[in-house]
Amino acid sequence: MIFLKLFCTFFKIGLFNFGGGYAMISFIQNEIVYKHAWLTTSQFTDIVALSQVTPGPVGINMATYVGYEATSSVWGAVTATIAVCLPSFILMILISKWFLKYRHAKAVEDVFKGLRPAVIGLIAAAALVLCNAENIVDYKSVLMLAGAFLAVWKYRVGPIPVLIASGVLGLVLYS
User: Fold this and answer.
1) CB-based burial of residue 160 (10 Å sphere; 0-12 exposed, 13-18 middle, 19+ buried)?
2) Distance in angstroms (rounded) separating the CA atoms of residues 121 and 128
3) What's this model's pTM, rounded to 2 decimal places?
4) Which residues touch 131 (CB under 8 Å, ≥6 apart)?
């Protein structure tokens, strides 16, 4: 029964989320932590962090880890991973021919322009969800975020040097 619930939950997550793994985080947390109680908030936060540092898409990594944790089985990981990928696979097969024909139409371009702010909002919501009582954001974190943002936006520093500098700063400031 858990495998069917896991499949249906992640199929729904894959079907109703747009914008990639980061946009899925708040939806996944709502389903996994609050609705089904398969994980605690602390476990979920750890899975988000682990999903970000492992290779591959964040949403798929999270599905794999949650599936394993919820069932203590590799089959749970496989079930959740397939379920989260299946809606996109089916939809892409169904609309690919139509999209290739109409991708330059004004209405289609307008839809995608409208979706961009929604995706940014979903990603921002995911960031706020992760700022829960167990992970209180302090002034050091805020200053590091502002510095990283400034480095990337104003000074056009690449993401790798910013990540390395952030890691070193985190090690120095939090040890």
Assistant:
1) exposed
2) 10
3) 0.63
4) 137
Residues of 3-18 as b/e, b for ≥16 C-beta within 10 angstroms?
A: beebbebbbebbeebe
What does the chain come to in residues?
A: 175
Query: Which stretches within the chain are classed as H helix?
Result: 2-16, 21-29, 41-53, 58-71, 74-102, 106-130, 139-153, 159-174
Joined tokens for residue 90: 């089916």
Cα-trace Rg, the chain: 18
Domain residue ranges of the chain, discontinuous segments joined by +: 2-136, 137-175
> Rounded to whole angstroms, how far apart are CA atoms 106 and 111?
9
Task: Measure the CA angle with vertex 69, ends 27 and 131; round to 5°.
Answer: 40
Question: Residue type for 166, please?
Answer: S
- Asked if 21 and 60 touch (Cβ cutoff 8 Å), the reply is yes
Q: How many CB atoms lie within 10 A of CB 73?
A: 14
User: Residues 22-78: pLDDT tens digits?
Assistant: 778 888 999 999 999 999 988 998 999 899 888 988 889 999 999 999 999 999 999
- CA–CA gap between residue 30 and residue 33 (Å, rounded): 6
